[in-house]
Amino acid sequence: MAETVHDISIAYEEDGQVLVKEIDKKILSSGAWATIVFRYQDLDKAKGEYGPDKFTIRRYQKRDGQYQAKSKFNISSIAQAKKLIEVLNKWTQEE
Fold first, then answer.
1. Quick check: 86 and 76 in contact, CB under 8 A?
2. Which residues are 46's β-sheet partners?
3. Sequence-ordered list of residues with C-beta below 8 angstroms from that of 20, at least 6 positions apart, any chain
């Protein structure tokens, strides 16, 4: 668990091998509830290489001094990310 929003990471290691490599993160909001978007890559164990970039948006709630994961939305490809960006750009320009 993380005490500050800056300490939150999705990097994951097992038996000394990094299975999820966090490339970048942007904190969209912080406080009692935090929203963070991460850029990451998964390790393809068969090839021994990291796959293409993926993205995830995660929400965390701070309880008893620690941030706990509450929800997530995974964006599985750059193509899907671009479609999401297109829709959000359209919606935000309408207002």
1. no
2. none
3. 10, 11, 12, 40, 41, 42, 43
Assigned token pair, 60: 């965390």
Integer Cα distance of 66 and 30 in angstroms? 13
The H-or-E segment that residue 47 falls in is none
Q: What is the pLDDT of residues 27-37, one digit of tens each?
A: 999 999 999 99
CA atoms within 13 Å, Cβ hemisphere of 62: 15
Residue 28 has phi, psi (to 5 degrees) of: -85, -35
Q: Which residues are CB-neighbours of 78 under 8 A, at least 6 positions away?
A: 52, 53
- Three-state secondary-structure class, residue 33: strand
State how far the Cα of 2 lies from the Cα of 60, in Å rounded to an integer: 10
**Mean pLDDT confidence for 50-75:** 96
Longest distance between any two alpha carbons in the chain, whole Å: 50
Q: What is the pLDDT of residue 29?
A: 97
